[in-house]
Fold this protein.
Amino acid sequence: MLCKDTPAFIANRVGVYSISQLFHYVAEKGLSVEEVDKYTGPVLGRPKSATFRTADVVGLDTLARVARGLYEHCPEDEERELFRLPAFVEKMLANNRLGAKTGEGFYKKVKKEDGSTEILSLRLDSLEYGPQAKVASPALDAARSLDSLEERLKFFATGTGEPAGLFRANSFGLFSYCSRRIPEIADELYRIDDAMRAGFGWEKGPFELWDLLGVAGTLEAMEKAGNQAAAWVKEMLAAGCSSFYRLKEGRKEYYDLSSKAYREVPGSGSYLSPGLLKRQGTVWKNAGVTLADMGEGILNCEFHTKMNTMGSEVIEGLNKAIAIAEKDFRGMVIANEGQDFSAGANLALVLMYAAEQEWEEIDLLVRAFQDTMMRMRYSAVPVVAAPHNRALGGGCELCLHADHVHAHAELYMGLVEFGVGIIPAGGGTKEFARRAAEERVAGGIDDLEILKNRYMTIAMAKVSTSAAEAFELGYLDRGSASVSINRKRQLSAAKKKAIEIARGGYVQPVPRNDIRVLGRQGLGMFTVGGSNMFSGNYISAHDRKISEKLAWVICGGDLSAPAEVSERYLLDLEREAFLSLCGERKTLERMQSILSGGKVLRN
C-alpha cells in the first residue's frame, strides 16, 4: 500500500469510496446507466465525471482491483463493506465487460446496417444492451437556469426527486467519510481536496464543496440523514470557525486540526480563487457579475451567467467595475472560475429581437457592447483579462480590448460569429483591422497578404486549440499577453501583472484616429475571392453575403484609396453590417440551429 499523505493513496481511498457508494445506491434504487450519467455531473458538481462513462474509460477491472485492495488492507475502516462492489459489477467482470479496452462495458458501440454507429447502454438488471433511453427530469431542467455551482448544489441539497436524493446520499456520505479519514490518510484537509482535483478531475474537492453548501447547515442535514461526521467538525464550529477555508490578506488558509486554528495553505500566495474572493471581499454584485477586492489595490470582475455569456447584466457589471476601479483601485482583473471564460454575447436575446424586427433594440445592444469595450480599452487604470478554456465571440473581443491578457495554456479562443450568420461587432473586426495596419507598419509586408490573413481568421471562424495557437492566429499579441501553465496560479499571476503595469506608470490611452485601411483595393480582392469560392460551390450564397459585409468593414468601406480612419468609424461600420445581417432569414436560421442543437448550419 502507498504511504499516508501521498496524493495517489488519498485519491484512491476517497475516489473509489465515492464510486463504490454510488454503485451500491444505484443497485438499491434500480437506477439506469443513463440516469446516473445524466445526474452525476450537474448534481454532484463534477461536470467531467459521468460515472459509468468514466468507469468504461478507466476499466472496470482497474476499479475492482483498487476496491479489493482497499477492502483487504483497511480492516479498521468503519465503511469497509462498501468496497465490496455490487453483484452487477462482479457479473460484468466475469463476462469480461471491462469497458473501452474490451469494447463492452456500461456502454457498447455497434455498427448499424446503414454503416453508421450507435452507442447502446447496459441494462443493469438483465445485463443486456439496448438503445439509450432519454432521461427527463424537471429538477435538472430547473437546475440549468442556475448559473453558479454553489446555487446548483444548494438546490439539490434541499430539493426533492431522484437527483436530489442521489446528491444527498453520495455527498453527505462522502463528506462524513472524509472528515473521519483525518488524520488517518492525511493530516491536513486541503490534501484531500488537492488529491481529488488532481486524481479524479473534480472541479472542487469534498471540503470545498462542503464549504459552498455551508458547513453548519449541511452538518445538521447530514446527521438527520444518518451520516455522522468526525467530532472535530463540531469542535471547529463551536470555536467560531465557520468554514474549512478562508481568505486572509489575499492568502488561502485552511482549518488545521492539530493547532485548532487556521493556517496558510502552502503556496497559496500564488493561488487565488474568485469564489473565496467573492465570499470575503465583495464590493458590488448583480445577477451576472461580482466585483471583489483582491487586495493591493486590484479589483476582480467575475462573470457567473450561464456559460458566462455576456448580456445586459454583464455589460452593466463591466461598466460598474471600471467606474469603481478608476475611483478606488489602481488596476482591474477580469477572471472567473466557470467551465468557460465566456461563450460570447447572449445570442438568444439577439435572435428574439431580430425575429420581432426590433432593430432599435439590437442597435442599442450592440452599441452598448461596443461602448463598454472602448471604455475598458481607454480606462484610467490597467485592465488584465485572464481567459481559460473557451473564450469565444464577445469573450474573445473583451480580451482584444484589455491592456494585457494573461491566458491559461488550455485556451480555445476565436471570433466565431461567422458561423451564426453575422460578423464580430463588439470591436472584433475593428481590432483585426487595427492590428493588420500595425503589422504592416512594423513588418513592411505586403498590405493585401496581411489583411487577407486577418480576414480569413474571422471568415473561417478559426478557434485556437491552445494559448500558443492563439498567438499564431492573432488573438493574442506577444507584446501584451502572457501564459500560465498552472490554472490555479493564473489569477494570482494576472493580479501581479496588473500591479506591474500600474507601478510602471500606466498612462490612460488616447482613442485612435490613425488606423490605415485599404478601401477598394482590399474590397476588390475579397469580392473576387468570394465570387470564385461561390462559383466553385465551396460556399453558399449567404456565406458570400456575410463575407462581403466582413470585407466592407475590415477594408473601411468604399474608399477610393487607402486612408486613415478612427476606431469609431470602424465600429459604426461593424454595427451597420451586424444589423443588416440580422435582417436576413438565413442568419436567423443559423442562430436557431446553434441555440437549439449546437450545430452550425450552412444554408
In short: The CA atoms of residues 231 and 242 lie 15 Å apart. Residues 7-29 form the longest helix (23 residues). The chain has a mean pLDDT of 90. The radius of gyration is 27 Å.
